[in-house]
Amino acid sequence: MIIRENTRDSVSIITLAGTLDALSAPELQSFSENSALSPNVVLDLSAVDFLDSSGLRAIRGMALKKRDSGGDVILACMNDDVRKVFNDTQVARLFHIYDDLEAAVTYAETNKKSI
Fold first, then answer.
1. Does the structure show a pLDDT above 60 at 115?
2. CB–CB of 13/5 below 8 Å?
3. Percentage with pLDDT > 90 across the chain
4. Is the pTM of this model over 0.85?
5. C-alpha 2: how far from its chain's center?
6. Which of 7, 16, 53, 99 has a CA between 20 and 30 Å from the CA of residue 105?
C-alpha cells in the first residue's frame, strides 16, 4: 500500500493506493497514530483496488480516534468494489461518503469542530 498525505484548506487529504488488507492495515494504523493530521481528514480511496475487513477496521479505528478528539474522517472516490464492501458490511452508514474529492474537502472544511 502507498500512503500519500497533503493538506488543502487546513484539511488533511490522505490518498491510499493498492491493497488495504490484513498485511497493509497496520501500516495505515501506524500512519494515523504517528502523523500530525488536521482534525478533519479526507481519505481518497480512488486508487484502492482491494479492501477487506482488516482494512475496514483500520479506517473505522482512524475515524473513532478522530471523532474522540473532535474531528472526523470523510471518505471519497471509492470504486464500485470498495463501495460494495462498505455497503455490504453496513460500515458505510458510519461515514460521510462522497464520489468527488472536492465535495469531500468542502464538507470537511465547512464542518470543522473546535477541539
1. no
2. yes
3. 83
4. yes
5. 14
6. 53
Instruction: Considering the domain delimited by 2-110, tell me its CATH architecture.
Output: 2-Layer Sandwich (3.30)
Of 94, 24, 27, give the one whose Cα is nearest residue 63: 94
Partners of 40 in beta bridges: 72
Query: Could you tell me how many residues make up the chain?
Result: 115
pLDDT tens column, 64-96:
999 999 999 999 999 999 999 999 999 999 999
Mean pLDDT for the chain overall:
93
Residue given cell 479506517 in the structure block: 59
Long-range contacts of residues 17-21, Cβ cutoff 8 Å, at least 24 apart? 17/47, 17/48, 18/47, 18/48, 18/49, 18/50, 19/48, 19/49, 19/50, 19/51, 20/48, 20/50, 20/51, 20/52, 20/54, 20/55, 20/58, 20/59, 21/50, 21/51, 21/52, 21/54, 21/55
